[in-house]
Write a structure and sequence with these properties.
Layout lengths: L3 E7 L3 H10 L10 E3 L2 E5 L6 H8 L5 E5 L11 H5 L5 H4 L7 E3 L2 E4 L4 H4 L2 H11 L5 E5 L12 E6 L4 E6 L2 E6 L10 H10 L5 E4 L6 H9 L3 E6 L2 H13 L5 E6 L2 H5 L8 E4 L9 H7 L5 E10 L2 H13 L5 E14 L2 E11 L1
Parallel strand pairs: 6-7, 11-12, 11-14, 12-13, 14-15
Antiparallel strand pairs: 1-3, 1-4, 2-3, 5-6, 7-8, 9-10, 15-17, 16-17
Helix pairs in contact: 7-8
């Protein structure tokens, strides 16, 4: 029998490497992780691409290896097995197969009409499967309003919206009823933070509870100006700054990004624009924040199929009014947000 493909790293960096392998869809769930001396061997489904290997190597010294790794036993109870006899087969086929973990809260994006009548049974089964979780919440409406806060219904467990979420070594207090937060941007936040160098000044224009700002200040000796119009988001950001040991400094600013930016002209080496529904409307604001020699913009926007091409087209329409040149140096689809709709990330190099 052949040996299994794996990634070798130091034990001290094992958890960070495991998380990024999960986010890249590379960790093999059917094989166990093995330890030998000071090394860990993490099973992977495939060899990483060069860009993936470079990203992983920013976290730890790693190398591809081959080892005999144990086959993991199948869990005794899948969601279907837990629901047999409680939910009819017609509804069972419509049970949600993907959901988010925010700290110890499970969040369902939605539920089909066929399964909606049995949503409480489904939620109770999810809590049985994921014993570390305490609540299951269902989004009953899309994110809307000035503060982008979703409507949430508690289906099972504790009826609460506050939890502590961790990603890549950063802890964040989150209140899902008062400030927007998406765990699905975890890899994207890490990708951006990994590119920030010591000494940079960053403006996070729509910071929320601070996931981008915190990850950047955690990984580099940078100066981050974190703006959000939601006072509850800024209150949580201040708690999160105190909760983490940061290398850089974060300056929370409660206010409208247009007004706040007037006092920060030509301050930033890079700007983060995570307001996908409206980010293009703030392009002139973002470019004015960058230093006189230019800089980087991390722009997020919603796009229809084909997502990258349509996002670039929308950018070109808006950028015709920008006094300078915007070059797309990196683009990627971040996540699906609705049928035939995606969030797209565009990294832009601006030169006045």
């Amino acid at each position: 029998m052949g040996k299994d493909l794996c990634i070798r790293c130091e034990k001290s960096s094992g958890e960070a490497v495991r998380k990024i392998l999960v986010s890249l869809g590379m960790l093999d769930p059917g094989r166990g992780i093995c330890a030998e001396g000071r090394s860990l061997f993490l099973p992977v489904l495939r060899s990483p691409t060069q860009s993936e290997l470079e990203l992983i190597s920013k976290i730890a010294v790693v190398e591809l290896d081959r080892r005999h790794l144990p086959i993991l036993r199948k869990k005794k109870s899948s969601l279907d097995e837990l629901l047999v006899g409680r939910v009819p087969e017609s509804a069972l086929r419509a049970v949600p197969r993907s959901y988010d973990f925010v700290g110890d809260i499970i969040v369902l994006e939605g539920i089909s009409p066929e399964a909606a009548f049995y949503r409480r049974e489904i939620a109770e089964a999810l809590l049985t499967m994921h014993s570390h979780c305490r609540s299951v919440l269902l989004k009953t409406d899309r994110v809307s309003g000035q503060y982008r806060v979703p409507q949430l219904e508690c289906l099972a467990g504790e009826d609460r919206r506050v939890t502590v979420h961790s990603e890549y070594g950063v802890k964040m207090k989150v209140d899902l009823s008062k400030a927007y937060f998406s765990p699905r941007l975890g890899y994207e936040r890490h990708r951006v933070a990994s590119s920030v160098r010591d000494g940079e000044t960053v403006v996070d224009m729509f910071a929320g509870v601070g996931p981008f700002s915190l990850m950047i200040a955690k990984s580099s000796k940078s100066e981050v100006h974190a703006i959000d119009i939601n006072p509850e988001a800024i209150r949580l950001l201040k708690e999160n700054i105190a909760m983490n040991r940061l290398r850089g400094a974060i300056f929370p600013i409660c206010g409208d990004a247009r007004q706040a930016s007037l006092k920060m002209q030509h301050l930033a080496d890079r700007v983060i624009m995570n307001l996908p529904g409206q980010s293009l409307e703030f392009l002139n604001v973002a470019t004015a924040l960058l230093k006189e020699g230019g800089g980087l913009i991390h722009l997020y926007l919603f796009s229809r199929e084909p997502p990258i091409e349509n996002a670039v087209t929308a950018l070109k329409r808006r950028s015709s009014h920008v006094p300078g040149n915007l070059e797309v140096i990196c683009s990627r689809v971040v996540k699906a947000t609705a049928p035939r709709e995606w969030m797209v990330s565009l990294d832009l190099l601006f030169k006045p």
